[in-house]
From TrEMBL:
SUPFAM superfamilies: Clavaminate synthase-like
Pfam families: Cupin_8 (PF13621)
Domain JmjC: residue ranges: 154-327
Organism: Aspergillus taichungensis
UniProt lineage: Eukaryota, Fungi, Dikarya, Ascomycota, Pezizomycotina
Protein name: Clavaminate synthase-like protein
Length: 327
């Protein structure tokens, strides 16, 4: 759909002819044995874990392909790469203003305004007097220009409705923007060199991805702002997920939750998954014991296939990431 098909009015509502979505803008184990190698975080945001059973994830001292392959990729162990290892990606200079967590909307508007991208819309409950009312959630596609307009509004004033550019495939963007994300050597050389997908994630905190697992190894790089990642080994994560599914009266087979699904982003399933991973008292028969990674711009981490993880965007300013699924 071309940008000209969207109706941008002077009033605060923006609607699409084709999609029933309205967005309101306001005016203006073996890992534990390696923990002695752990380095201290670089920033001033808290290092306190939300739950004491989540241990800090180790940081590799050497980002060479051989060391990464031996220590992490082949044994399928998650790890944080050396801090700021990925800060030389061209996207850092082009997609963001220098030394800030502000998106360069002018650059993206110039080269990709009409690109059709996936967006997640979270809106507050319509009945504010209902203590049990939950936010509404919708996934839809729209021109990138809509998201950039929302970002400009969010820079000046907090927005009640949240837009998240979630799992936007690089293939959906023009070539000039795709070129800002050259494939890292670790992705191209550690395994067979097969890249299955590359995705960009951009929003304002709080952003949230519920507990799930990926079918392929994942290199996850923070581009701007901060994210906290919590990880559970395959069997531990399956036990937590199965406990949540039993509470919902649903099947807990191992084929479930292979992807970040819309059903995880709303209702009771979202609430129970978030409680199981992030609250001090998860209330589960199988308590979670895992690892935690705290990432800033330029940091990257490796998540092996089958490892369960949940991610939260925190702090001030835009939080943005890119990931490569590969083998």
């Amino acid at each position: 759909m071309k940008r000209s098909q969207c109706l941008f009015h002077t009033n605060p509502w923006v609607r699409f002819q084709r999609y029933p979505v309205a967005v309101r803008f306001k005016a203006s184990s073996s890992i534990q044995q390696q923990q002695q190698q752990q380095q201290q975080p670089r920033s001033n945001f808290s290092t306190k874990s939300y739950l004491h059973s989540y241990h800090p994830l180790q940081i590799l001292k050497d980002a060479s392909v051989a060391h990464f392959r031996e220590q992490s990729f082949t044994p399928e162990l998650p790890t944080i790469l050396p801090r700021a290892h990925f800060q030389n990606l061209p996207a850092f200079e082009r997609w963001f203003h220098p030394n800030t967590s502000r998106l360069n909307t002018t650059y993206l508007e110039q080269h990709g305004a009409d690109a059709f991208v996936p967006l997640e819309l979270t809106q507050p409950p319509t009945q504010s007097n209902d203590a049990h009312a939950e936010p509404s959630f919708r996934h839809f596609h729209a021109p990138l220009s809509l998201f950039l307009q929302w970002i400009r509004a969010a820079e000046t004033e907090p927005q009640a409705s949240q837009l998240y550019l979630a799992q936007c495939q690089l293939l959906d963007l023009p070539a000039i923007l795709r070129d800002d994300f050259p494939t890292p050597k670790l992705v191209a050389q550690a395994g067979r060199g097969d890249v299955y997908d590359t995705n960009v994630w951009i929003g304002y905190p709080p952003t949230y991805t519920p507990l799930h697992r990926d079918p392929n190894p994942n290199l996850f790089v923070q581009l701007a702002g901060q994210k906290v990642v919590r990880l559970l080994a395959p069997d531990d994560g399956q036990a937590v997920f199965a406990s949540v599914r039993r509470q919902l009266g649903q099947c807990s087979d191992r084929g479930a939750a292979a992807f970040r699904g819309e059903e995880m982003m709303q209702g009771q399933e979202r609430a129970l998954l978030e409680q199981a991973v992030w609250e001090d008292d998860p209330g589960l028969s199988t308590p979670a014991h895992g690892y935690e990674a705290r990432l800033e711009a330029g940091d990257g981490m490796f998540i092996p296939s089958g490892w369960w993880h949940s991610i939260k965007g925190v702090g001030e300013g835009v939080t943005a990431s890119v990931n490569w699924w590969f083998r």
